[in-house]
Design a protein that fits this description.
With about 450 residues, the chain is of the alpha+beta class. It has a 7-stranded mixed β-sheet with strand order 3-4-5-2-1-8-9. Strands 6-7 form a two-stranded antiparallel sheet. It has a two-stranded parallel ribbon with strand order 10-11. α7 packs parallel to α9, α13 packs antiparallel against α14 and α16 packs antiparallel against α17. The longest helix is centred in the C-terminal third of the chain and has 15 residues. The structure holds adenosine-5'-triphosphate (ATP) and magnesium ion (MG).
Length: about 450
């Protein structure tokens, strides 16, 4: 299939042949200069929405108010936007109006210099009105124009600055950083969904731990994730946690993930969120009894605040709720272990455990043990040798003992002690009397 870049070039050629200016715009130009493949390649043009829709057969006007059209057809869809200038942002989210503009004005309305570049395929040149190329080379995130004004137009840019700094491991330029920290208390004005999406991209991306550090240092955790800010300075016993406080541990755990799913990244971010409220000195050291359960409670509140989907929330809470069970793993009976391995999406529980270890003592013994158990199919639970119907047929009357009997049989089946139905029935007869038949 055609790459997003090639598809964009075809779209640009069509616009050019029809007498229009058209360039690759924004993130895709940045990524290309960095040698990274972009998943979406946007085009900016002087053609208006109607004209774009005339020139291409298969289009959807996704943001008519902003002059944005999606050109579909072969290959990935390309977003085509008319060069525009944004009016004032009275709500701190969206411009009050937009109007058609020159490419230079369109560059100036974008957030950071590295995102304000265009590429002209006709001349094979990068068009840079904002100093973006130099900042890309130097590894700097810098607002275009006055940083305080740019952040107050759209507070999401606070999170975007952190996201790009983390993803590319860039520095945030001093004036931009100062404006970011001053504007951070306004972050509560943002819609939860927008914050959630930015945070998810930060914690699932490269250098996620640094992203978390920047969020904390910039004051961006206060409104949306104050429970994480509370982890700073919460000391842990050095024999288990040589890395330091709970916040540092969490930061390192994020860094230990490898291309995580969103729920895994959220679970890692929040796995020890129950530690600050459960921290107690006991017997000369800090303990966190019950922190997994407390963590489930707090993470539930956070997931709802940030409007994660119900399915993701459930998955996140499952991972947090079970994360301490790995401590017992080597001592678990085979049946308990196999049931644990058979949890839905166990590999993600295990990935959280791995990150948890790598972020503390580095001991992966349990991780490897569970990995071996998975490889030998221990998570594949067999159908039970006996059901309630089998017990009834064997002369047992359904009663509250049934659950216990069937569990005992299934435990032994999982342990490998019982392998045949008859053997299982014999085991039941040895251990449980059928109820005496009713006298008449
Ligand atoms: P990604 O690789 O994550 O998609 P991107 O830079 O392409 O990064 P998008 O959110 O896809 O980011 O936006 C495309 C371009 O639109 C950006 O490069 C930037 O020029 C501009 N842009 C996006 N969001 C904003 C914003 N909130 N404020 C100003 N400009 C923005
Ligand atoms: Mg993009």
């Amino acid at each position: 299939m055609q790459s997003a870049w090639d598809k964009a070039l075809v779209v640009i050629q069509t616009l050019h042949d029809a007498g229009h200016l058209a360039y690759v715009a924004g993130g895709a130009v940045r990524d290309r200069l960095l040698g990274i493949r972009s998943h979406d390649v946007d085009v900016a043009t002087d053609a208006d929405t109607d004209r774009v829709q005339q020139l291409f057969k298969n289009t959807v006007a996704v943001g008519r108010a902003f002059g944005v059209v999606l050109v579909k057809g072969d290959g990935p869809p390309v977003e085509v936007a008319t060069f525009r200038l944004d009016g004032p942002y009275s709500d701190g989210r969206r411009p009050d109006w937009v109007r058609p503009a020159t490419p230079e004005e369109d560059a100036a309305r974008r957030d950071f210099t590295i995102n304000g570049l265009f590429y002209d395929p006709q001349t094979d040149r990068v068009l840079d009105w904002v100093g973006g190329e130099q900042d890309l080379r130097a590894g700097v995130i810098r607002c275009i124009g006055d940083p305080a004004a740019r952040f107050s137009e759209d507070y999401l840019r606070l999170f975007r600055a952190v996201r790009f700094a983390a993803r590319f491991d860039f520095d945030i330029e001093t004036a931009t950083w100062k404006a970011l920290t001053s504007a951070a208390p306004q972050a509560h004005r943002l819609a939860a969904e927008r914050v959630r999406d930015e945070l998810t991209r930060i914690i699932t991306g490269p250098h996620a731990g640094r992203g978390l550090q920047l969020l904390a240092d910039g004051g961006l955790l206060m409104d949306w994730l104050s429970e994480l800010a509370a982890m700073r300075g919460v000391e842990q016993p050095p024999q288990y946690h040589p890395e330091g406080d709970v916040f540092t541990h969490t930061r390192l755990a994020l860094d230990a993930l490898e291309k995580p799913s969103a729920p895994l990244a959220w679970a890692t971010l929040l796995h020890d969120v129950g530690k600050p409220p459960t921290a107690r000195w006991r017997g000369g050291r800090m303990t966190f009894w019950g922190h997994a359960d407390k963590g489930v409670e707090l993470a539930g509140v956070i997931c709802r605040r940030l409007k994660l989907s119900n399915a993701d929330t459930e998955h996140v809470l499952e991972m947090i709720g079970h994360h301490m069970r790995f401590l017992d793993y080597p001592k678990m009976s085979v049946s308990t272990r196999r049931r644990f391995l058979a949890l839905p999406r166990f590999v993600e529980h295990l990935a959280l455990h791995r990150a948890d270890c790598l972020a503390s003592n580095g001991n992966l013994t349990t991780y490897e043990l569970a990995q071996t158990d998975l490889e030998s199919g221990q998570d594949d639970l067999p159908a039970p040798l006996l059901t309630g119907d089998d017990l009834i047929r064997a002369g047992y009357t359904p009663d509250p003992r049934f659950g216990a009997i069937l569990k005992a049989v299934y435990d032994r089946q999982l342990e490998g002690e019982l392998t045949e139905r008859d053997q299982a029935l014999a085991f039941v007869r040895e251990n449980w009397e059928p109820e005496s038949p009713q006298e008449d």
